[in-house]
Design brief:
By secondary structure, the protein is mainly alpha-helical. It has twelve helices and no strands. The chain is globular. It starts with a helix and ends with a helix. The N terminus is likely disordered.
Length: 273
């Protein structure tokens, strides 16, 4: 009975979480499409596809590894946080280095400036409180859902405010960066921070990497399935068409994304337990 109740509660919070963010996205899209040209959304679509691709090609499966592991000691969580931070720093540097060549590839300085801004979101994600993954492990979603919803509100508010003043792609880049930074700040304020310390234990790192190599393979396949369309379209059609396509894709993929979120946040932790 307890497990059924926990699953029902976790499922409810997963639905509240996804439903709230989807509602905010709908309202913000209605406003932003009136303030920004479709080309701005095309720039953001290419930039986000590049960012997601780099992230997928370096995914070590940290969330899945911590959720799957039976270890609950400080050494394991501090090692996981250290690996998360190192990955965030490396990804930030990679995006900063590639920003200019990618802008040349698409003949768009705006893509370069978008990437130069959102690159720092990788560092912010690297600083996330590792205690969040303990809640994921136990499918306790209330705190992390409230934090993510609050961060989404901040990011969307900044997007809309900037777009009112200066209607360009910077609004979308700053909104994404501020949303990520807000999420990180709130996790550090709300959760205990004892596990956010530099430490590398060989056994813990090896356990994370063993599962991570399979996650790495699956995310590479997912990248080619989910991201290559926008990258290819960016070279074949005008960026404003890519903007129309990306907005339509977001809304068309809502059911699949909702099921994927529930599977990650509820089903996988339940199976591992």
């Amino acid at each position: 009975m307890t497990r059924r109740f926990d699953v029902a509660r976790s499922t409810l919070w997963s639905l509240i979480w996804y439903g709230s963010k989807t509602s905010f996205r709908f309202v913000s899209n209605m406003i932003l499409t009136r303030l920004l040209s479709p080309e701005m959304f095309g720039i953001a679509a290419i930039g986000n596809a590049i960012l997601n691709g780099i992230g997928m090609f370096s995914d070590i499966g940290l969330t899945q590894s911590v959720t799957h592991s039976r270890r609950n000691d400080a050494s394991f969580f501090q090692t996981a946080w250290t690996m998360q931070l190192l990955r965030g720093v490396v990804l930030m540097l990679v995006v900063l280095i590639l920003a200019l060549p990618i802008g040349w590839l698409y003949d768009s300085p705006a893509v370069t400036s978008f990437l130069l801004i959102v690159a720092f979101s990788q560092l912010a994600m690297g600083l996330n409180n590792i205690e969040v993954l303990r809640d994921y492990r136990n499918a306790e979603l209330r705190r992390v859902a409230l934090i993510d919803i609050a961060a989404a509100i901040v990011g969307l508010g900044i997007m809309i405010a900037w777009a009112f003043v200066q209607p360009d792609h910077i609004a979308l880049a700053l909104g994404a960066l501020c949303s990520t930074a807000t999420f990180t700040l709130l996790t550090l304020l709300w959760y205990p921070r004892e596990m956010c310390r530099l430490r590398l234990e060989r056994e813990a790192a090896g356990e994370i990497m063993r599962l991570g190599k399979w996650i790495f393979i699956s995310t590479i396949l997912a990248f080619f399935i989910m991201q290559m369309d926008r990258l290819a379209l960016g070279k074949l059609v005008p960026l404003e068409w890519v903007g129309f396509y990306s907005i339509a894709w977001i809304w068309a993929s809502i059911p699949a994304m909702m099921l994927g979120q529930w599977s990650t946040q509820v089903f996988f932790p339940l199976v591992t337990q």
